[in-house]
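#onboarding

Welcome to the new folks! Below is a worked example of what a typical request in this channel looks like: someone posts a single protein sequence, and someone else replies with the predicted structure as tokens. Don't worry about understanding the tokens yet, we'll cover that in week two.

Example request:
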Amino acid sequence: GLPYPVQVDAVNLPPHYEVGGIETIEYMQAKSTPYEFKGHLRLTAIKYLSRTGYKDDALQDLKKAQWYLNRLIKECEDANG
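Example response:
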């Protein structure tokens, strides 16, 4: 094992989304249209906001919603030049 504890970032880089050598979000973007991908980001942010306080860690859900919203903003900014 490693001589130090491994810190898992369950919001920004969950290790289970990198199995197979590519991050799932990047694969989803590659296999969808820009419109579809932005819709996925928006709906996933809504999902995490809607479940906040009802499942798992509420603060983590808020951070995940923020992550998806930030990614959506970036995609919109990139599309607008």
